[in-house]
Design brief:
The chain is of the alpha+beta class. The chain is 53% helix and 18% strand. Among the domains are: 38 residues; 64 residues, no CATH class. Strands 1, 2, 3, 4, 5 and 6 form a six-stranded antiparallel β-sheet that branches. Helix 2 runs antiparallel to helix 3. It is rod-shaped and about 100 Å long. The model has no long low-confidence stretch (mean pLDDT 83).
Amino acid sequence: MTRRAGLWLWRWRRNPLRRTSDLVEAWILLVAWVLAVVGGVLAGVVTAGALQRAADRVRAESRPVSAVVTQDAAHGSVRPAGGALGWGTVRWTDADGSARTGRTRVPVSATPGAHVTVWTNGRGVLIPPPASSADIAFQTALGGLWAGTTTVGVVIGGAKLARARLDRRRFARWDEEWARADTPWGWKTG
């Protein structure tokens, strides 16, 4: 065993200077590192998978429908909402043949009678267009990274709290031992 490895593993070896709290601390650190690595990866993978399934479900329920703009911007039905899209009133025919109207984002340049593509869910309600594959991949990766990082942070934070409690206990014991050692000599060190 190299000297460097021996420094890292001193809490595990039998040693007259090793206290029980040192061994407890070693176990806390070992468990924390294992939980941080395994838990972080697992949380990231599970979260990314859940986000991917939710996005796939939304994409499966979304249907593009051809619609007609019914009012122009002069009547207040289309208001710029930033960029090239604004809110407009459109009319479309649902899958069951019923005529529907609703408000959705349409190009600002759309005039009454212009044909636009809108998105509906399985119940004929207007929804925003589904995210692209690249957006979904980015969101799932970011969500998985966030979940994994949060898990690691919680585990390491818990280990630090446990170590701080052990340190407080060790300091209290050292104070007691110094108080006992000082008494026979007849003076106090502190």
